[in-house]
Write a structure and sequence with these properties.
This protein starts with a strand and ends with a strand. Helix 5 (about 175-180) crosses helix 6 (about 185-195) and helix 7 crosses helix 9 (about 235-245). The strands form two sheets. Strands 1-2-8-4-6-9 form a six-stranded antiparallel beta sheet. It has a five-stranded antiparallel beta sheet with strand order 5-7-3-11-10, with no helix packed on it. The protein has a domain at about 1-150 and about 265-270. It is built from ten helices and eleven strands. It has helices at about 95-100, 120-130, 130-150, 155-160, 175-180, 185-195, 200-215, 225-230, 235-245, 250-255, and strands at about 1-5, 15-25, 30-35, 45, 55, 65-70, 75-80, 85-90, 110-115, 260-265, 265-270. The chain is of the alpha+beta class and about 270 residues long. Keywords: DNA-binding, Transcription, Transcription regulation. It holds the Pfam family DUF6597. This is Helix-turn-helix domain-containing protein. It comes from Flavobacterium soyae.
Length: about 270
């Protein structure tokens, strides 16, 4: 499996974390199980169905040629073969509102064909592209044009890029944040949810969960109690509850599972 990251143009860096490609030409064709955990970063996924089998959801439904996944607050499952070529975009949490002018809560925990949000030829342009670098160029032009006509909330953009330190304990600092931006607490909460799709409190929990994902792969079971407090959970019970809600696994189960690969908060396993 070959995973590559491509940096966005300077004019897109406030909205796009990176472009990525994931390719595999395994000799033996098997089925992979992809478990996607809760994830603060929306994404676009394009699949090359001219050459390879399509991605299927947990119910066996074929996913669209090019689709958008909003911010996720619960785990989901998908399946594809060990021979594949996928290309994607990892967005910042507030990007879908800016790019598509929608209330981002309409996309939370949903995977939607891009054509339902914009009648565009982008899926077919990506399918006909020469290579992944060409796909970066195609999507960069598309997103730049979308931003030009989009709905950019400068306050929320500033929060994600200039005041990142506030995000860790966001649920405890909402009043301070609102005062910092000259807004009422209710105004800030409303604008945050429109831009990201979730409340500030839920977003704070997601950040703690994702920080747990970063440290757990190198942890052993005896470390979990200490990690609980390092990650600013009140106690291990709260840690276990949040982790189970956002991943479908206990922290111990996650430590024991060996993935074949990962992209953001998605982990790839050989299907049992």
């Amino acid at each position: 499996m070959e995973y590559k990251i491509y940096q966005p143009h300077e004019k897109l860096k406030a909205w796009i974390r990176y472009f990525w490609s994931y390719d595999s030409m395994a000799l033996e064709k098997k089925v992979l199980h992809i478990r996607s955990f809760a994830d603060q970063y929306p994404r676009l996924i394009f699949q090359d169905i001219n050459t390879f089998s399509p991605i299927k959801d947990a119910n066996g439904n074929i996913m669209p040629l090019c689709y958008l996944s909003g911010l996720d607050t619960k785990p989901s499952d998908a399946f594809w073969d060990t021979q594949f070529s996928h290309f994607g975009v990892s967005f910042y949490p507030h990007a879908l509102h800016a790019l598509f002018g929608i209330d981002a809560s309409e996309m939370t925990n949903r995977m939607v064909d891009i054509n339902l949000l914009d009648k565009t030829e982008i899926p077919f342009l990506l399918l006909d592209a020469q290579d992944h670098h060409n796909r970066v160029q195609i999507l960069s032009t598309y997103f730049y044009e979308r931003l030009y006509h989009g709905k950019i909330d400068q306050t929320i953009n500033d929060l994600f890029h200039s005041n990142k330190s506030w995000l860790w304990n966001m649920e405890k600092k909402q009043q301070q944040l609102a005062g910092h931006y000259g807004l009422s607490e209710r105004q800030l909460q409303r604008r945050f949810k429109i831009n990201t799709g979730v409340s500030m409190t839920k977003f704070g929990r997601l950040i703690r969960f994702e920080n747990a994902l970063k440290v757990l792969p190198t942890a052993v079971y005896g470390d979990l109690t200490a990690l609980t407090y390092d990650l600013q959970y009140a106690d291990q019970s709260h840690f276990n509850t949040d982790f189970k809600e956002f991943s479908g696994l206990s922290p111990y189960q996650f430590i024991r599972k060996e993935s074949l690969g990962t992209e953001s908060s998605s982990f790839i396993y050989l299907s049992e």
